[in-house]
Structure prediction request, 309 residues.
Amino acid sequence: MSAPRVIRTIAEMRKVVADFRMSPKAEGKEPGVSGSVGFVPTMGYLHEGHASLLRRARQENGLVVLSVFVNPLQFGPGEDFERYPRDEKRDLEVAAACGVDIAFLPSADEMYPNPPLARVTVGEITGKLCGKSRPGHFDGVATVVTKLFNIVRPDRAYFGLKDAQQVAVVTQMVRDLNLPVEIVPCPTVREADGLALSSRNVYLGSREREQATILYRTLQRAGEWIAEGADAAELRGRMRRSIAESPIADTDYAEVVTWPDLADPPEGRPLRELDAPLLVALAVRFGKTRLIDNVIINPKEVTATCSGK
Ligand code: AMP
Prediction:
């Protein structure tokens, strides 16, 4: 596949998408695909998880835009903004292999010539899970995603369920603000041993990498505990104890909420009796590295699987 066109300015990015929309390709026989713009926003250091989003965007759109921007607004003080891994050359190779047309790689000055006075805040659902541990994080995400949507003006934007709360926040924002874009949630891509792919996995030392499988193992057990009749408090406690089996793992949170509204399930009631899908989510520190993972469980299906055994 040919290398993507690299764009670093907002003005050029806007022009290329506007030209595409005027082009004969955009007026092709299948307007749903050939005329549409698919967008995959990332912070770079691309891996197979990002690639799965890019390939899906390639299948469904006539123009595929990747952005790579490590957004300072979504990092808190003392977080890993400075040391976040960056490798533009490799990112462009992955993008080329996935058939990306445009790689939008703006600088921080291009995106934020002045500290922004206008920001996007999404209520309630940003106050729990990662939003609780990382105050201001989702306002930073919502603000940069809105800016990127206004610059790229995509028809569809692809987000990974690895960051399920981010999917919930962006979907809510698009709905509340009537942004003309369809949010496409995509499944989490994992290593063979279950570890969810993440750019931050490069921070892990070999012992940490070995023990990081405790996240997904705990999430799998969570499905069994729900099937056995655990309520929310019991599930949280069991997940914490499961993570503690790794002596170097430090639980940030082990939570269960309803999906996609992220509401607290009723306490004291077996989760398997609920109608809503459940988001079971973990954040665990290994030294300085914070990993997150989750599964979305349909309580009815869990119960059916269990009783079928
Ligand atoms: P990031 O570069 O970490 O901001 O991620 C960019 C996009 O890729 C987000 O929508 C993430 O949810 C998605 N993503 C990251 N890791 C994975 C993964 N393991 N599987 C699927 N999507 C992912």
User: Anything to note?
Assistant: The pocket of adenosine monophosphate is lined by residues 42-43, 49-50, 52-53, 159-160, 162-163, 186, 188-189, 196-199 (CB under 6 Å). Residues 256 and 280 are 4 Å apart (CA to CA).
